Amino acid sequence: MKLKILVTAGDGIGPEVTREAVSVLEEVALLGGHTFELEARRIGGVAIVNDGTPLPADTLAAALDSDAVLLGAVGGNEFNSLPPDKRPESGLLKLRAALGGFANLRPAFAFKELAANSPLRPEIINGADILFVRELLGGLYFGQPREWNRTTNEAWNTMRYTRAEVARVARIAFLLASRRRNKLTSVDKANVLEVSQLWRSTVTEVAKEFPGVSLEHQYVDAMSMHLMNQPTSYDVVLTENLFGDILSDESAVITGSLGMLPSATIGGKVNLYEPVHGSAPDIAGKGLANPLGAILTGALILRHSGGMEAEAAAIEAAVRKVLEQGFRTPDLARTNPDGLTVLSTTEMSARVRETLKTMLVNA
Ligand code: NAD
Ligand code: IPM
Ligand code: MN
Q: What Rg, from alpha-carbon coordinates, does the chain have?
């Protein structure tokens, strides 16, 4: 298998965790005789500093010319006073728009080994296995008009969707639900917002194409509570852009840490892969970052861009094994350090590679 992967590590812990995800992919290539052509480019704050723009033209061109893009994270406190279109985050949003992927898949899986790390009781989270499908190219993030008018002291953003934009992401969510447990929960705020009424009506219509999948609608406020009370009730959860951003971070409470969550964005010209977490300036450069979200994101590249299901599953199994053996990064050890071995970012990744090697060689 040959795959051309553009690596945009970005800022903060982005480079630290991306390096480890790449090292695991290289291990897979070595063991299986695959060729992954890896190229690195700048994005975000590091690109603002070096190139004067958060998305340099050569990064965009290389991204469009690859089979998959692996992104670390962007953003840093030194850029916080810039207007949205000058910030590191705008580089990521422009990249997302250019690559065209509109369905952001964010699996949230409760490893039972991490149950003690969640503030939720084990009996609440055990067995939770949710796939968020977050619409990624519409809503408040991209809707026009948007402005902060400093003369009138008003600011506005626009939450806008077309029926076609809702239908295309809904179809992907239903399709994925039909391959899982046949349940789809669509999240909106249709009791208040017209855009959510369009969302609900479109999703209800698309549901007719998937008679085997049961559909329920939830308001986003109630959903944020249900997720914590009964996470095992959900299979695929479909959301608009901002609601998905918020609920997927909330799901870190189920999985024990934000550092565990991977994502894949599909449906466009080139798939984009990024862990759910950000650049974590509070822990950057200290070897404290959990690389498992980035490593699991690497597994999603193999699954969704490489058609390498066995290798993707092997990475996921290696992560589980390492957790079973009691290895933890600090974010996964906070509530229950007894009997656990706390590792740095690079040590954790080395454990995963070692375990993967044993698995793939013995397979
Ligand atoms: P964050 O996700 O960076 O961090 C939130 C908290 O989770 C912090 O306490 C952090 O230390 C912890 N955390 C995150 N990832 C971790 C990991 N892998 N291992 C251990 N702990 C981890 O969110 P934030 O602090 O709100 O934002 C920081 C910056 O990141 C902002 O500039 C924001 O815009 C940006 N951001 C970028 C992305 C992205 O590039 N995809 C995503 C989210 C936030
Ligand atoms: C995420 C991030 C991004 C988003 C930011 C950095 C633009 O929070 O991927 O969850 O809001 O989509
Ligand atoms: Mn987010």
A: 20
d(CA 70, CA 318): 20
- Predicted model pTM: 0.98
- Say what the pLDDT of residue 348 is: 98
* Mean of the per-residue pLDDT values of the chain: 97
Contact of 323 with 104, CB cutoff 8 Å: no
Predicted pLDDT at 335: 67
Contact assessment for residue 281 and residue 10, using Cβ atoms and an 8 Å cutoff = no
Active-site hit among 188, 245, 273, 321: 245
**361: pLDDT strictly greater than 90:** no
From atom 12 of ligand 2, which residue's Cα is the shortest distance away? 245
Nearby residues of 275 by Cβ (< 8 Å), 6 or more positions away:
17, 72, 73, 259, 261, 262, 263, 293, 294, 296, 297
* Candidate from 74, 95, 99, 258 with most ligand 1 atoms within 8 A of CB, to mutate: 258
Asked if 270 and 67 touch (Cβ cutoff 8 Å), the reply is yes
Residue 336 pLDDT greater than 70, yes or no:
no
For residues 174 and 320, what is the distance between their CA atoms, to the nearest angstrom? 28
Is 17's C-beta closer than 6 angstroms to any atom of ligand 1? yes
Catalytic residue, chosen from 58, 65, 85, 221, is 221
Q: Which helix (H) or strand (E) holds 250?
A: helix 241-250
